[in-house]
Amino acid sequence: MRLRSLASVFFVMSSLGAMAGGNGEEVRAWPTGFRMAIHVGGQSPMGPLSDRFGLSNTVGLSGYYQDAGGWRWGAHYRFQTGADVREPGLLQNLRDPNGHIIDNEGRIALVTAQQRGTILALSAGRLLGADFFKPGAGFLVELGLGYWEHKVHFQNRGNRLTQLDDPHLAGYDRLTGGWMVLPRFGYHRDAANGLVRFQVGVEAMLGSLQPNRAWNADTLTADAGPRHDGAVGLFAAWILRLQARSTDLDYYY
């Protein structure tokens, strides 16, 4: 039901671009070809993910092919990080009565838990002209489908702790992964001189994920699946200039 609603919104909004030329007006022509973009974003978790992690951020790269009608197809890579880990019972079996974790040498270990994640996705979308804002401006409507994986990463500062080394680490890292959809809506700017190309907007990550670990050693329980993890946030991307610069100067020899 969730996927059907997202698909309906996507196709209704993308059809607005085709309607723009229905009254005889000329439809804007967008630059065509392949493009690369550097992505940054921040997300707030939803559903079961909010019980495990807090705010997160993503960085990554996107590659697109775009046609003159504004349709574009892309591939995306995102690396996700976060400093707020809320997982109940995490490492509880390694703590002494004072709440400290003791390393192999009998010293207090400085262990920090962090969020790590990877997103790989393919997308289809369209740019809808909005030159009433500024020449080269448009609205972005895009829907992605891909794979999302997240886990707990432990930063161990100078202390050797056997339980957090392979193969024992699998009992603590909560590795989870599965399919997800990535709807995105935003503002796109494509200056005529080709020097200013960026996009900003809102996006959501909605996944049906499965735990990849059979057993959690600290809580002596197994995670149940599927997990309907989600996140919503803001994104920005700078579109790289792949063509050679042009000049209006004439050179005489």
Overview of the molecule:
With 253 residues, the chain is mainly beta. It has one domain (2-19, 37-141, 151-239): Porin (Beta Barrel), CATH 2.40.160. Helix content is 9%, strand content 46%. An 8-stranded antiparallel barrel has the order 1-2-3-4-5-6-7-8. A hairpin with a 6-residue loop joins strand 6 and strand 7. The chain is elongated, with a radius of gyration of 23 Å. The model is unreliable at 9-27 and 249-253 (pLDDT under 50).
Q: Layout of helices and strands, plus pairs?
A:
Blueprint: H1 2-19, E1 33-46, H2 49-52, E2 56-66, E3 71-82, E4 111-129, E5 137-156, E6 176-190, E7 197-211, E8 230-239
Categorize the overall geometry: elongated
Portion in strands: over 45%
Question: Please, what is the average pLDDT?
Answer: 86
| Unreliable segments of 5+ consecutive residues | 9-27, 249-253
**How would a textbook summarize the main sheet?**
8 strands, antiparallel, barrel
CATH topology: Porin
How many domains, as an integer?
1
Instruction: Give me the number of helical elements.
Output: 2
Percent of residues in helices: under 10%
Separation of termini?
68 Å
Q: Assign the CATH class.
A: Mainly Beta
Number of E-type strands: 8
